[in-house]
Amino acid sequence: MRRLYDEIIKQHFTENSVVLFLSGPRQVGKTTSSQQAAADISPSVIYLNWDIEDHRALILQGQSSVIQLAQLEKLSTEKPIFIFDEIHKYDQWKNFIKGFYDAYKERIFILVTGSARLDIYKKGGDSLMGRYFSYRMHPLSVGECLGFPSFSSDIQHPRPCDASLIRRLMEFGGFPMPYLKQDPRFSLRWQKLRHQQLFKEDIRDTSSIVDIQRLEILAKILSMQASKLTTYSSLANKVKVSVDTVSRWIQLLESFYFCYLIRPWSRNITRSLIKEPKVFLWDWSLIKDPGARAENFIASHLLKAVHYWSDLGLGEYDLFYLRDLEKREVDFIVTKNDEPWFLVEVKHSNNAGISKNLHYFLHATQAKHAFQVILDEPYVQKDCFTSSSPIIVPAATFLSQLI
Q1: How big is the CA angle at 202 (ends 199 and 205), to the nearest 5 degrees?
Q2: Contact predicate 35/10, CB 8 Å
Q3: How far apart are CA 295 and CA 288, in angstroms?
Q4: Which of 242, 259, 316, 395 is most buried, taking the most CB atoms under 10 A from its CB?
Q5: Contact, 41 vs 31, CB < 8 A?
Q6: Sign of CA dihedral 68, 70, 73, 74
Q7: What distance in Å separates the CA atoms of residue 246 and residue 301, rounded to the nearest whole number?
Q8: Gap between the Cα atoms of 252 and 237, Å rounded
Q9: Under a CB-based contact definition with an 8 Å cutoff, are residues 402 and 304 in contact?
Q10: What are the two backbone dihedrals, phi and then psi, of residue 99, each rounded to the nearest 5 degrees?
Q11: 96 pLDDT exceeds 90?
């Protein structure tokens, strides 16, 4: 299937010559999108995967051996595109890509993909600063399934969304294979295999973690308490390791796109960083509790939106939750250029009316919008972002206006 990220890749190489980093969870579709988009841009696409022995041997021979594949001596009006997949597993990958780019940047395009956060991965020595733009690839979302959005604006016009699309995404998740199959038995087998590949291959091969079994226990506990506050000391007691180890392991799981943390919003950045975060999973279909899965589902849509808007250069966007000393809480707040923009409270159904906390925090933060997003409400053809007071919004409408 064609993904939104195919268009992002094509736009990048239309407007820029710097390296494109495309990172995201394993099995999210990075390789497929890269190859499809590259084929649309250039008739010459050279794909090299570090996990393939012959490709790895060629990379280790050096840049001159790799560049021969492009046959640059032939007259052509098109630049060849080199795709380096999972090359972050090579301990000198940054030096390799830097040297490759510096030597041939006028004659080729370079696309680097990986199932780890390439922009912060520390192995590799020399800096690539100023030589790349980074994009983060997310699972399928309601907005992406409804069609590709405008690259020039953040909020989209509402697009008709059937309830079956949300049910399908909620049940099977946003990873393309289980979403397309819609088969519970296939999904369970796929989840098991993906788990094994993540912990027994990716993390084992590219980190210094020895006790993989305890790391897996930590991942299981995080899955069971997704959308809840994360207390590192409590996790350390359960896993039987130190608090520092838990902190380091969670950072590792974040870097491999198993989970992500959402921290409390505060104008005091230091104060925000030391408070307890909430943990969420990239694959929300792993979560058994319906309420936690619903909150994770909305969180993942919001995270995808803020990453997409930030990566395209539309502004600086971020995602937090709200909680004060009186324990008043709102599930999410999205900021734009460091200013509160809109609040989101997630509910399965509209049984108790609108949350008082939305009114309170809308006034306290001076955000522009506040939404109580209801999962089981039918789609309404109206732009919810025209309202400046707290309103109840169907998830189908709200999510159709994101990406």
Answers
A1: 105
A2: no
A3: 12
A4: 395
A5: no
A6: positive
A7: 27
A8: 19
A9: yes
A10: -65, -40
A11: yes
Q: How many CB atoms lie within 10 A of CB 159?
A: 18
| pTM for this model (two decimals) | 0.94
Query: Measuring CA to CA, which residue among 294, 306, 202 is closest to residue 255?
Result: 202
- Tell me which fold the domain 4-136 belongs to: Rossmann fold (3.40.50)
Token pair of 92 as six digits: 């000198």
Residue at token pair 């199959």: 181
Contact 403, 156 (CB under 8 A): yes
Q: Is the pLDDT of residue 124 over 60?
A: no
User: Which residue blocks in 312-352 are alpha helix, DSSP H?
Assistant: none
Lowest-pLDDT choice from 149-163, 200-214, 277-291: 200-214
| HSE toward the beta carbon, residue 403, CA cutoff 13 A | 25
- Asked whether the predicted pLDDT for residue 207 surpasses 80, the reply is no
Q: Which residue has the tokens 């939106």?
A: 305
What residue ranges do the domains of the chain occupy? 4-136, 142-161+283-403
Q: Say how far apart CA 35 and CA 111 lie, in whole Å.
A: 10
How many angstroms separate the CA atoms of 371 and 209, rounded?
Answer: 42
Q: Indicate whether 122 pLDDT > 60.
A: no
Position 198 scores a pLDDT of: 92
